[in-house]
Design goal:
With 486 residues, this protein is an alpha/beta fold. The protein has helices at residues 40-53, 57-60, 63-79, 81-92, 96-120, 157-170, 185-197, 215-221, 234-245, 269-281, 301-312, 333-348, 385-388, 404-412, 427-436, 469-476, and strands at 2-4, 6-8, 11-13, 20-24, 31-36, 125-128, 136-144, 147-151, 174-178, 204-206, 227-231, 250-254, 259-263, 291-297, 352-355, 375-378, 395-401, 416-417, 419-423, 441-444, 459-460, 463-464, 477-485. The strands form 6 sheets. The chain has a 7-stranded mixed β-sheet with strand order 15-16-17-14-13-19-20, with helices on both faces. It binds nicotinamide-adenine-dinucleotide. Residues 151-155, 160, 178, 180-181, 210-212, 216-217, 220, 231-233, 236, 239-240, 254-257, 288, 390, 392, 418, 458, 462-463 line the site of nicotinamide-adenine-dinucleotide. Keywords: NAD, Oxidoreductase.
Length: 486
């Protein structure tokens, strides 16, 4: 069993209050970790350490030295790859191939890529005319924003946390991280990595705990936290935005989605079925970019539904380490209750259940885990909460459409605007539709193909701001203009 403490000023420390909480495995509900529960005192210590570190050894590093150190962080993650995989599997219960091929390598990449971006991206310079004819030169200088509060979710814990910590540190900031209470393990391991490669004390801090009236809220309310980057539910974002208003702190929000997949009759059907299968069911549907609403052009509707059903019914449920397992449980019993409530709601609202709709029979210990069947529905009205609200589970609703215009209107009929995936072999149509779907990220004939130099974020209630590439620098640095009169 893991014993998880806070990581403050380069040391692993328990809460002064002695308070702890337990983390249970999603697979069989057994306790996998005992975690120190942070309160105001631990947040105060962590923020003070982070503030102090802004002026010490860390600030004195040249950009080149900082970049090299972050490369070493990435290399050490790679050396300890198996430890990260095992920890993330214990937290999430997801199959090992998801950790090995996606979540952990991306965590390491988040340090390398942003270090390289900081080294290579120029700032702006403008020459201006002046009445005396001599002119003036303006140039931009980026400096770190300060102490960044990082509030992270549970669905891809290491990837999403490092997606923020990587650029924040690359830009010379210090961080206080609050991992999700569901998934504290890899943030703690990262503390060991930081010490091993010699990242100065206080640069990376972790306080464990919960959200409201706990470590999460205390970080977002702390006057010495200069900016807050958050990934999680839109409702939580609302609370954090209120906290950030005190002291006018900057926020970057990556929040929920109710993403549409649009499948045209002229698509490559096999690729579209594979793509929608992955986007709806990878990570047991717990992906913010995942597809919960699928719109399929009528001539191929029946064929598409049948093919997706076949794929869904071929998944293998089981322990993450077992050979051939490609589908895991939901993160917690509580989340399962939420997802099952939507399964019930779909029934009440008259859905046709194409497959799934309940809880699978799991053998032995696994029966105690938070398993749900992957589920496909048809025939729901668009007004149903199942179509309007983010479920964050392994499920999708499929509805036919008859024209491009109708598909666009259906896709846009949502309070969210995170991502969409469009399937067509008609390039002109792909461009037309991509331009009109109101989301931050559109994929054509693919899904989750991520180039970390590109803008990432959501429109409407899916987010505020963009991270990725130079956009991360916009958030994690303060751009100062220097104007020199010639
Ligand atoms: P959540 O909002 O419940 O929790 C996220 C984090 O916020 C946790 O660490 C939690 O403890 C903390 N928190 C909760 N209340 C808080 C408060 N009042 N003040 C400060 N911190 C608080 O989200 P979750 O359930 O962990 O994650 C799933 C959600 O995240 C889904 O809605 C999903 O769409 C979204 N998500 C979005 C993206 C994206 O890039 N847009 C990526 C992944 C997940």
């Amino acid at each position: 069993m893991y014993q998880i403490e806070h990581f403050i000023n380069g040391e692993f420390v328990a809460s002064g209050s002695g308070k702890r909480f337990e983390k249970r495995s999603p697979v069989d509900n057994k306790v996998v970790a005992s975690i120190s529960e942070g309160g105001q005192a631990e947040v105060d210590l962590a923020v003070a350490a982070a503030k102090n570190a802004l002026n010490g050894e860390w600030a004195a590093l040249s950009t080149n030295d900082r970049v090299e150190l972050l490369h070493e962080v990435a290399d050490e993650i790679t050396r300890r790859f198996d430890d990260f995989v095992v920890a993330e599997m214990a937290d999430t219960g997801q199959p090992s191939h998801v950790m090995r091929h996606a979540f952990i390598p991306r965590g390491a990449a988040n340090f390398k890529i942003f270090a390289d971006i900081v080294k290579n991206i120029p700032t702006e310079a403008f020459h201006m005319d002046t009445p005396d004819g001599l002119g003036a030169l303006n140039y931009g200088v980026r400096s770190p924003k300060g102490v960044i509060g990082v509030i992270a979710p549970w669905n891809a814990p290491f990837l999403l946390m490092t997606w923020k910590v990587g650029p924040a540190l690359a830009c010379g900031n210090t961080v206080v991280v609050k991992p999700s209470e569901e998934t504290p393990l890899t943030a703690t391991l990262l503390g060991e990595v930081m010490n091993k490669v010699g990242v100065p004390k206080g640069v990376y801090n972790v306080v464990n705990g919960f959200g409201p009236e706990s470590a999460g809220e205390f970080i977002t309310r702390h006057k010495d936290v200069d900016a807050i980057t958050f990934t999680g539910e839109t409702r939580t974002g609302t609370a954090i935005m209120k906290a950030a208003a005190e002291g006018i702190r900057d926020v970057s929000f990556e929040m929920g989605g109710k993403n549409a997949g649009i499948v045209f009759a002229d698509c490559n059907l096999n690729n579209a079925v594979d793509g929608i299968f992955r986007s709806s069911f990878l990570n047991t549907g717990q992906v913010c970019l995942g597809t919960e609403r699928v719109y399929v052009e009528r001539p191929i509707f029946d064929q598409f539904v049948a093919a997706l059903k076949d794929k869904v019914e071929s998944v293998t449920l089981g322990r993450p380490t077992d050979q051939g397992v490609n589908y895991g449980p939901l993160i917690s019993q509580e989340h399962r209750k939420k997802v099952l409530a939507y399964y019930e709601k779909a029934r009440e609202d008259g859905a046709t259940i194409v497959t799934g709709g309940g809880v699978p029979d799991m053998p032995g210990d696994l029966a105690e885990g938070s398993w749900v069947q992957p589920t496909i529905w048809t025939d729901l009205p668009e007004t149903s909460a199942v179509i309007q609200e983010e479920i964050f589970g392994p499920c999708c609703h499929i509805r036919p459409f008859d024209s491009e215009q109708e598909a666009i209107e259906l896709a846009n009929d949502s309070d969210y605007g995170l991502s969409t995936t469009i399937w067509t072999e008609n390039l002109a149509r792909a461009h037309r539709v991509a331009a009109r779907v109101d989301v931050g990220i559109t994929w054509v004939n693919s899904w989750f193909l991520r180039d970390l130099r590109t803008a990432f974020g959501g429109s409407k209630q899916s987010g505020i701001g963009r991270e990725g590439g130079v956009h991360s620098l916009e958030f994690y640095t303060e751009m100062r203009n220097v104007c020199i009169k010639m």
